[in-house]
Amino acid sequence: MGRNNLLEDKSGKSSGMQKEKNIMNFVKFESKRYVIPFIMLILGILFILLQGNVLDVLVTVLGVILMIGAVVLGLSLLSTMSPLVIFGASTLFILGLISVVNPGWVSNFFLKVVGLCIFLNSLVRIIVEHSLKGKSDKYNIYLITDIVSAVVGLLLFLFPKTWLESVSFLFYVFGIVLVILGIFNLYTAYKVYKEGRFVNDGTDVVWEE
């Protein structure tokens, strides 16, 4: 049994819940580690390809699609109009209508939510990765990456689109930063998962002391 490959219990024996640490199991079981970095990567690409007004147009188009989808959903399930179907179709239609009527507000709100998620995710990673201090020679790299990510997330939350639109070039710069951070966060998330030796203490899987 390799040091880095399996979850182990305190006796050193493999646990009944052992999973080999490979890329497939990482993708399958560790989504909480890579969802936010993946969103950062996609958002960065959108920032590079789209500008502020284009982003609003995209929100408008999505709003129209939501409204059409709500109508289609309602008509297709007209014969079985349950409260759940009515609520779902109505919610989709209202969300679509808001997106069409005020796309700027919706895109700003979306960016605020993403920024807050990036900020909170980075704080959690900083706290969790503190257990790696003295156990991993890459600890400082992980820490710096998460601090920069937290700052970027906070900026996105506080100034979602206004300050980016003040200088259009900032959209490209911010997009490139998000792409780089997204890729690096995906890489470090996998490395921490792959290289760390974890043990099951009976309640959770923790870093071995």
Structure description:
The protein has 209 residues and is mainly α. α3 packs across α5. The longest helix has 27 residues.
Descriptive labels:
disordered C terminus, mainly alpha, 71% helix, three-stranded mixed beta sheet, 209 residues, globular
Query: What class, by secondary structure content?
Result: mainly alpha
Mean pLDDT: 75
- What shape does the CA trace take? globular
Number of helices: 8
Mind telling me the C-alpha Rg?
22 Å
Main β-sheet: number of strands, strand sense, barrel status?
3 strands, mixed
- Beta-strand percentage range: under 5%
* Weakly predicted, low-confidence segments: 1-17, 198-209
Count of strand segments:
3
Oligomerization status of the protein chains: single chain
Helix content: over 70%
Output the helix-strand order: EHHHHHHHHEE
Distance between the termini: 19 Å
Strand order of the largest sheet: 1-2-3
Q: What's the quick description here?
A:
The protein has 209 residues and is mainly α. It is built from 8 helices and 3 strands. The protein has a 3-stranded mixed beta sheet with strand order 1-2-3, with no helix packed on it.
Task: Break the fold down into its secondary structure elements and pairings.
Layout: E1 8-9, H1 23-29, H2 31-49, H3 52-76, H4 83-101, H5 103-129, H6 139-158, H7 162-166, H8 169-195, E2 198-200, E3 205-207
Parallel strand pairs: 1-2
Antiparallel strand pairs: 2-3
